[in-house]
Amino acid sequence: MEKICVAVRVRPPAPVIQEVSSGLYWKVEHNRISLHNPIGIPISGASYAFDHVLDQNCTNAKVYELLTEDLIRAAIEGFNGTAFAYGQTSSGKTFTMNGCEDNPGIIPLAIRDIFQHIQMALDREFLIRVSYMEIYNEEINDLFSPENQKLQIHENLERGIFVAGLREEIVNNAEQVLKLIEQGEVNRHFGQTNMNARSSRSHTIFRMVIESKSKDTSSSEHSNSDAIRVSVLNLVDLAGSERIAKTGAGGVHLKEGKHINKSLMVLGNVINKLSDGGKQRGHIPYRDSKLTRILQPALGGNAKTSIICTVAPEEVHIEETRGTLQFASRAKCITNCIQVNEILTDAALLRRQKLEIEELRKKLQGSRSEVLEQEILKLRNELLKYELEREKLAMELEEERKSHKECNQCIKEQQMKIDNINSIVSCSEQDGDSVQIKFFPSSSSMADAGILVLLSTGWGQLPVRQRLEEDSNDDHSTCQENAFKTPCFKSVRNTFVAKRSNYSKLPDSSPLPDDFSNVADEELWLRLNKGHNTDLNSLQMTPSIKAHSFSSSDPSGPSPGYSIEYYKDEIQNLKRQLEHTIEEKNELERSHAKQLFLNNQILVEMSKLQQEMLLIRGIPQKLCVSVTHCKDIYKDVLSIMQIAFKHR
């Protein structure tokens, strides 16, 4: 367990135009900074103590010696390390981290110190990778490759928290790293405000991954000497918090300032949570900001951390300085759990490349060693680039597989819907086919009752002719019993009356009976009608009764839910739904085919990349053959020269 090292640096005062001055000022005494009134008495509650308090005369080299030098040595030994500068805008953060030619900052001093320690470590071999990113408006951009923008943060057990797609360069000297940083600074966002002519509008993180392995190969394969140490060093230059009233920012700069203040506020919340006790800590909002998510191992995790808080001594900035000092006081209470990062698997890049170049290194002890070392470094960079591309393609392939699975699930659901609709349509067609034709009984007083078509499920099981014969027999017996009853036109229950058949033509008059024995005589008619006398001659030709039409509005008529037109409309609707579902199915099949085509293209690209990697891996062998051939030629030339020299 180790506490975070916190230091405060006071920059030289700048000329500030102010109307009223109360005479308050900040005073540095050893490792304490306090606010004093005009007569020199400290103000209560405005005194803060830290590990180091540096006045305006302190140089960047002194800051590096007190805060970062031990951090760099620990990173070389396998510990993670992070150093960042925090403070308001124009307080000297960028100058502390980057410096200038006469007074270099923490980043260039750390880079030179790392390579000096590597040269002195004769018992270990090192591999250094560097990357440079910025967080601009909560979006991660690659400063080495400006085309890589809006990168995403990922986490796994092997690499921890990392930025996917970030370009990494393998380096072997300090000058190469400083040149890369100079190229990256060109792509960084700067702006001019009322408080700073060159104000940082984004947070930058310079990251070095240091891998090392013992050169002692006499021990067994899985001994401690064969363990690979992998440490991550983050050197962070934060953008400063700012007040719009003082900076006068507007437009784009106003939007940038809002994002800067938001990320710094989240950083302050994380520091507040970590500074509380273990039981009172609760949830720590690392994921509320890209900055805190990347710096999560440095804040309460496995890393040695140093924080340099820069403040402005002017009276007009007293409130901002007080806020920075309170942030530093809370950060001082945070404890990290640090340990050496050792890897015993083949996951580290150093181990993967060692088997390929071990024999080549032995053969490069002669001439052209420097040129061939550069070739090897170039091959390493290309191999690393292909590894990153392979990882990116693997992630895209995984996303395509997920979308393909969802598409298949959607197709299955649509197929189930289609099957249900097909079953409904088949049932409707069977119901529509079960139509019965029934003859209502006819009497002498109502001879035109006609033929009516009815729907009945039970009648649909018999042939039409057989049903007609059965109905005719039933109607004949019914006619004999009820010859003088008034015909009933009410529909049978669970049936409905349809239109008259086009094949039954209405007669102009009532038909004459075939058997006159069923016709009542005058005496019977008088008895039935209670003495009412009627001209029997008028009964011989009764005018035809007009056919009754039963509309859907008739309450005594049939139910509209059982009409043929209703069933036809329902069938048409179901057919339209079926056609629409089939179109959706075809569209999903086309989309599925397109996804399969894209997956095949990705697989082809991956196979091409694998072939290129195999070709690149074969280059060292070709170089070995070329070196061997050159040595043979060199020996031949040397022997010829020796023979010629002897003859002289």
From TrEMBL:
UniProt keywords (A-Z) are: ATP-binding, Coiled coil, Microtubule, Motor protein, Nucleotide-binding
Any one Gene Ontology biological process term?
regulation of chromosome organization
Tell me the ranges covered by the Kinesin motor domain, including all copies.
3-334
List the molecular function annotations (GO) for this entry.
Answer: ATP binding; kinetochore binding; microtubule binding; microtubule motor activity
Q: Specify which residues bind ATP according to the UniProt entry for this protein.
A: G87, Q88, T89, S90, S91, G92, K93, T94
Identification of the protein by name: Kinesin-like protein
Q: Which family does it belong to?
A: Belongs to the TRAFAC class myosin-kinesin ATPase superfamily. Kinesin family. KIN-7 subfamily.
From the UniProt record, list the coiled-coil ranges. 350-414, 564-591
Which is one Pfam family of this protein? Answer: Kinesin
Per the record, its GO cellular-component terms are: condensed chromosome, centromeric region; microtubule
